[in-house]
Structure formats: structure tokens, C-alpha cells
Amino acid sequence: MITNTPQKIPLWRDQRFWKIALQAVVLIGVIALFSLLANNLTLNLRKTGGTLFDFGFLDSTAGFGIGESVIPYQPTDPYARVLLAGLLNSLRIMVLGIILTTLLGIAAGVAYFSNNWLVKKISVVYVEIVRNTPLLLQLLFWYGLFLQLPALDQRLNLLNLAFLSKRGIYVPWPMSNLIWIWLGILLVEAIAAFLIWRWQLQVIVEQGQSGQLQQRLMLGLGLAALLIILFGFGWSFPQSTESGVDGGMRLTIEFTTLLIGLVVYTGAYIAEIVRSGIQSVPKGQWEAARSLGLKAGLVMQLVVFPQALRVIIPPLNSQYMNLAKNSSLAIAVAYPDIYNVANTTFNQSGHVVEVMLIIMATYLTINLMISLTMNAFNRSVQLRER
What we know:
Elements: H1 15-47, H2 79-111, H3 117-131, H4 135-147, E1 156-158, E2 162-165, E3 168-171, E4 173-174, H5 179-207, H6 212-232, E5 235-236, E6 239-240, E7 245-246, E8 249-251, H7 253-279, H8 283-291, H9 296-326, H10 338-349, H11 352-381
Antiparallel strand pairs: 1-2, 2-3, 3-8, 4-5, 6-7
């Protein structure tokens, strides 16, 4: 009886072996290269009498102050504390910037399709001017503009809701002790609204109905959110006094400059992304939506824009990461972000390489988190074939 036993493939002809072997060789080469560079750095530091490569300096006293901080900070605190304060300042700019630039970019992108001639032209002029001038120049423009504000005793009054001066911009601010609970409720409502919106799209596509029930549910959620924001947040309004302004929240000129500069600049690019995404939707989809009796606003909201998201989200991810990286230009307007604080840190401590590694790891981590979030959102809006 003859049995066919499979012959063993020689190791030098096995493709699986060579794939693993080549990856192992590359990995060993990369590790060896970084080890060589680290050893060379250590030797050079010893020869020049410089500081050795270590992160022990983070426990040393910083000895310098910063203009503003989310957490309490004193010059007697260690370098680790001031770097944390700079990181939180950067995150504050990034989070607010992403939210505001999304709203501005979508509004400007949708305005391009407005039947109103003036609204459309304003959108076009805004996009063309902002996209064709450098961000640094725009930041300096806004900084110079805010520096022209009057002194605190001659502050500008905006309907008793905000005050503008060189000391900063005073705006209303929520002061409720239950603010985090209300924010959690708003987050739940936002998730519910997104699910209802997806349900409404399914009803329109599969049943050819306008989804009036879903519209009423979303309207109810919107009214509930509005009531929470108006009455649940416990707003503190700025009040004009003889000595200055009490109450509310003071936004420094540096913070306001950086925030507005990043929002206006990135918003122009997002507007172009939104415009191109909307134009990618076939005209037949517009006509089919109108044939269902949907108004122009509902056509954009329920039919066109959801389909455009598949084109919008991938480049939108890049713009969010660009905003996070461009926030490092805060040094131009003296805002104490992570890069600005780190710049002072390595000048004083002499640990340039260590501080640069901290900065690189910080921006890399933030951008990876943005990318992971946007990729998950992108998968949720893609068409699923049956």
C-alpha cells in the first residue's frame, strides 16, 4: 500500500520562514541603531561635561512662572508640575478648538450651497482668504487686534453679557455644583440623538417615509438639552464694578488669540472638505429626497449630509490632527502650552533631548487618540453591504 506523505519544504525555500526572519532582522537592526545613537549621545555628553541622559530633573524646582494654568502651580513646584500645567493648557485649546472649528467649518461648507447670494459669497471669500495666508501671520494679526482693546477701566460692554479689555475677555461661565452630572446627561442625550438620527435614515431609505416620529423625538431631546444648558448650568454673568469686573470667566488675550486663530484657520479647510463631500452625493439623491416631500433643510440633514460623511470624515481626521499640532504655535503669542513651557524647561535644565522626547511622545499620543476616535466614527457611517 502506497501512502502519499507530504514532503517537508526545506527551510531556505519556506516563504513563511523568510517573512518572519526578515522582520526579525529589521527589528534587530532598528534596536541596534537606536542603541548606537543612545550610546553615542551618552559618550558625547560625558566628553562635553553636559548633563547625563535621565529624567530625574523632573523632580527639580522649576523656578519660573507661567501666565495661566488650569491647575494650581507655583514657581517652587517641580518641572513635572509645570509640564503637566502646559499639557492641560494645550488640551484645553485642542478640545475647544476641535468643537468650534467643526461647527464653523460645517456652517461655512453648507453655506456654499445656500440660495442666498450674500451668504454664499461670504463663505467663498472667507475660505479663499484664510486658506491662502499663513497661520502664523493670522495669529499675529489677531494678537495685534486684541492688544488694541482699551484698558480695564475703559472696557467695552457687549449687552452686559461680555466685557472686552486688555486684561482679557470676560464671558458668562457655568458655576453649578452639578455641572458634571448635567454634562453626563447631555452626553447621553447626544448619543440618543445620534441613534434616533440613524433610525430616521433607515426609515427613509427602507420605507420611503419622512420619519416624523423620529423628528419629534429629536426635537424633544433638543428642547431638554436647551433647558439644561439655560437653567441647569447655574450661569455666572460678569458684572461691572468700580474696581473692574466680577463674576463670569476671564479669557486671557493669549488664550483667545490662539483659539480664534486656530478655529478660523482650520475651519476654512473643513469648509472645503464639507463642500466637496456634499458635492460628491449624486444629484439623483437630492431629487429622490425632494420627491418624498422633504423640505430643503431636511434634504440636507437626512439624505445628503449623511452620505457625504463617508467622504468628509477621513480628511476631517487630518484637520483635527493638524489643529492639535498647530497649537504649538502658541509660543508666538506667549500662551503657556506644552511646547512653550517645555522650551523654557530645557533652556533652564539643559536636558534638551529628554524634554524633546517628552514633547514628541505627547503630540504622538494625542494625535493617535484623535485618529483612533475618528476611525471608529468613520466605520460607523460606512455603508454595510448585505
